[in-house]
Each structure stands twice: as C-alpha cells, then as structure tokens.
User: What shape does this take?
Amino acid sequence: MKNILPCFLIALLLLTACGKQVPSTKKLAPLPAEGTCKIAILPFLNESNYLQGGDMVAKIFHSELAASGQFQLLQEGDVRNIYQQLLLYPNRLPSREQLKMIGGRLNPDLLVGGIVQKMYQRDSGNFVDTELTLILLLYHGKTGELLWITYHRRRGEEYQQLMHIGRLKTLTALARRMSQEIITNWTNQGMLPCPE
Assistant: This one.
C-alpha cells in the first residue's frame, strides 16, 4: 500500500495536470452504505514551501465544510487529542491500521486527509500571484479504506473576469474558493448530506 499510493498520486497528478481546472475525483471504492454525515478532518500534510500551509488549508476546508450546513463535523481538538494519544505525527499520512484506531475512537462515517503540494503568494509588481495545489483523501471511517482521491489546482488569476475584478489575491480567499468547489464536486459525485 505504501508503494502504490505515491505512484497512484503521481499518475493522477500527471493525468489531471493538463486537463480542466475543476476538481478531479477518482473513486476507488463506494462511500459507506450507512451514510456520510459525520466527518473528521485529519491534519493536512504540507509539502509546499509555505510555512504552516497544511494547517491553514485544513482549517479553511473544515470551516467551509461546516458552513455548507450539509455535514456534521467532529471538532479539530478531538482529532488532535487522538493523534497525541496514539503518538501519531501530524506531518505524516496515517496507515490504514492507524486510521482504524482513529475511526474506532471518534466513530465518524468518513475521515478526510489532505496534502498541500504547492502553495505560494507573490507580489509581482502590479499584481499578487497566488497558487494552490492540493490532494484530498477520503477514507472510510470504520475500516480506514481509501475511497476517493480529489486533486485540485488553481491560481488566483483564473477567477479574474474583467480587468482585475474577481482575481483572488490572498491564499485564504483561494483556499476558501477551492474548498467550496471541492465540496460541490463531492456532492455532485454522490456524497449525501445529513438527513434533516
């Protein structure tokens, strides 16, 4: 599994890098039959050069998922406590066994992990250039099985409509917009919200 996942992620990156800019989701297994209501967001890995990029994107994704009003989210502090109790490093992806232990203690339907591959914000004279590349990993909350992989890459200038209107000039705004696009993509792909 450890050798297959990096190869698969690289293949997914290469296949989607030249394609359309909407989030690309690869379904490896179906979502849990019991539902996808209760979700735990795991710490995101930061492979970028941007200090604390993983933490920033994870918090923004958590807040956007909560703001959608469609899912019940576990508290970030509860997830961090489990990481401390199990002596897990937040800068590494947990193994399937570790995911099972996390799921056993928190009892979520889904676990969401992430990798921030590229993140930068540069002032280039008249403009501020921003770019974010991330991969989200959706795991079964009980078994730790990898279900979906979502790849998304955007630059702030891609949202520019007329003159400089619409251009996203901060990484926070870019991460927020990308999170909304991913959530929309997931619901369109069949992730059902909590019943009312």
Remarks:
- The beta strands are 24-27, 38-41, 45-46, 72-73, 110-124, 127-140, 146-155.
- The chain is about 35% helix and 25% strand.
- The CA atoms of residues 135 and 151 lie 5 Å apart.
- The first strand starts at residue 24 and ends at 27.
